[in-house]
Amino acid sequence: MLPFAVMAKTVTSTARRRSRLSPSKKATLVYFTEQERQLVDQAARLERRSISSFIANIVIEAADDILTRRNQRNKQRDSAASRRSNLSR
After folding, report:
1. Where exactly are the structural domains of the chain?
2. How far from 3 is each of 6, 7, 8, 10, 89, CA to CA, in Å?
């Protein structure tokens, strides 16, 4: 028997697991004013995340929101155009 207990594997952070699955090949530089950087630092600290992870996730959420709104507008526009064409027949 070993003189010490077997240590369980520690859980790796989500960011590490994600980067291993699909490593990023591109980099994007982001420039902040001092006030903006302090704001981001505080928010990331509260979320217990790295700055880069925090920024990446916020950007992905914002992009998803924008695309969702755009798709909804397009569907509404297409629906209205379809109704107009049905009325003119």
Report:
1. 32-87
2. 9, 12, 16, 21, 86
Provide the H-helix boundaries in 1-89.
14-21, 34-47, 51-87
Contact 44, 54 (CB under 8 A): yes
27 or 84, higher pLDDT: 27
Summarised one tens digit per residue, pLDDT across range 15-45 is 555 556 666 667 888 899 999 999 999 999 9
CA distances from 56 to 2, 13, 37, 52, 82 (A): 44, 15, 14, 6, 39
What contacts 32, CB < 8 A, 6 or more positions away?
Answer: 40
Dihedral sign, Cα of residue 57, residue 59, residue 62, residue 66: negative
CB atoms within 10 A of CB 29: 4
For residues 53 and 32, what is the distance between their CA atoms, to the nearest angstrom? 16
